[in-house]
Predict the 3D structure of the following.
Amino acid sequence: MSSPVLLRDVLPDTGIHCFMTRHDNKQANGFITRLDRAPVRDKKNAFYRALVLNLAILCGLIVLAVLTVSNNLTAPYPPSMRLAFALTQDLIVLISFWILLRSTLIPFFYGECRLRSHHGFRETEVVIRRSPQSLRLEKLAAASQNSSIGDKHDLGMLARSIDTFSRSAQRLISPQLLYYRASALLSKDYWTLEYAALLDAYRAVSDGEITEDIFEFSVWKQEHGRWTACELWRLQEIMTGEQESHVFETLSFPEKK
């Protein structure tokens, strides 16, 4: 998989290759990265809102646990029915507890709070999440290899492939769908940060193993131990002049071919 436009093979002996290999999972999902340059004030506000939200969830779980135990002890049923009722109710409550703990509370209090205590709030921050397996580079690579910049139709197909892939990646790493935002709790694209990778990334940058700008908006995938980066931050450099006009016309007026 290679392309002079977006796709770049990562050299095996580089720091970023070692970093990605060290943190990838057994399914070789890869990662999506970007640099967050939002104002520090906005980052602090987001953190404190998330703190309030997670404290509210934690308090709600504690109250629910107390009410569940109390209800089990005072339920107006015969002992045998009370036991069956208590076991069923407790199982439902425990599953709910586990889901919220694993998806929200533990990542925030053990991950986000630990990250902020070590590194505070920065003007430029690294964002890393694990990529879903559904986000694949093969189709984008094929479109890049088969397209001809001089052919208006092929250029339009390439542009649509890039646009679709970029939009998918942007949504997958959208801060509005991050796990500690109340608006994201019911979203199918709800996601969490990879805190172990983030802490290691800051250490690697501090030690000079890698540079911070390597984490610009990109999708990182490996195949048979070889890493490929889809550098979506380069989109603004892909086409200019007449080529850009062709792409715009093709995307805006698909009936004109």
About this structure: The longest strand covers residues 31-36.
